[in-house]
Design a protein that fits this description.
By secondary structure, the protein is an alpha/beta fold. It contains 12 helices and 10 strands. β9, α10 and β10 form a beta-alpha-beta unit. The two termini are 32 Å apart.
């Protein structure tokens, strides 16, 4: 399954994503792909700061299209919407694209990173969203088998949703602090996920200091969408991680893997808007 972590900057999303990768990697039956989709690259630093890696950036798209048998000018939308394309990216074995743009950091764990702003971004030839745009096709076209997990640390704030990348997640986890701005960001993110993309999400409330924080959160957010509460002085331990993974697993078992369907709907709607 594919889980994406979203939230306001400083909410703890990168820390939580790191903890989840570490937890899943301890089971040798699992294959784990960690994707750092944030230009700050905190997930990469947490997992393997000295890793020499080929960033996804703005050049990887050419190999991706080659693996899927599309020409260089093909749009991501056309790749996802093409029903005749039966090829998929795979983790076991690694397909050509995944093998080149991921780095093995343990026996069963791989790491991808969008990377920092490239020369094309800095020289105003493309916007920064272009660096991670290929995830809009890679994630929905990535075949996921049992005991295979992809953990994505997204960009901070609403920017993570506006790209449309979360349609390729089985679940978006919004990490939210019990503060005015934390709640504000969480609501903006969840409103887009619910009302525009119509895709699943849940909250994890982080850095709870007291009962006042709990009361504030419960007034502002739907309690049914909250997986867990993590207190300010509390370590993010295995109990928190297991609770979250079980929540997502139950969702997928009940509703199925809808990543490709969700992405197709998004791209079809985009075409209707043109």
């Amino acid at each position: 399954m594919i889980i994406g972590f979203l939230g306001k900057g400083g909410s703890g999303k990168s820390t939580l994503a790191t903890k989840v990768v570490d937890f899943l990697s301890k089971d040798q039956k699992n294959t784990v792909l960690a994707i750092d989709a944030d230009y700050n690259m905190d997930l990469l630093h947490n997992l393997s700061p000295d890793t020499d890696i080929d960033y996804l950036g703005d050049n990887a798209k050419f190999l991706m299209k080659k693996v899927l048998n599309f020409n260089e000018k093909t749009l991501y939308a056309d790749m996802v919407l093409n029903d005749d394309n039966i090829m998929r990216f795979t983790l076991n074995p690694l397909d050509e694209f995944t093998k080149k743009y991921s780095k093995k950091i343990s026996e069963n764990t791989y790491l991808m990173a969008v990377g920092p702003h490239s020369e094309n971004v800095l020289n105003d030839k493309m916007c920064s969203h272009g660096l991670s745009a290929l995830l809009k096709a890679y994630l929905p076209l990535l075949k996921i088998n049992k005991n295979e997990y992809v953990i994505v640390d997204e960009k901070a704030g609403v920017d993570s949703v506006g790209t449309g990348i979360p349609t390729g997640f089985d679940m978006s986890i919004i990490v939210v602090e019990a503060t005015l701005y934390g709640i504000k960001a969480a609501k903006q993110i969840s409103n887009l996920l619910r009302n525009h993309y119509h895709i699943p999400f849940a909250y994890i409330v982080n850095k709870v200091k007291n009962d006042t924080d709990l009361d504030y959160i419960k007034r502002e957010l739907s309690d049914g969408d909250i997986i867990d509460y993590i207190h300010f002085t509390e370590n993010i331990d295995n109990i928190h991680i297991e609770r979250m993974i079980q929540y997502v697993q139950r969702h997928v078992e009940t509703n199925g893997d809808n990543r490709l369907k969700q992405s197709k709907i998004k791209f079809k709607n985009n075409k209707l808007c043109k």
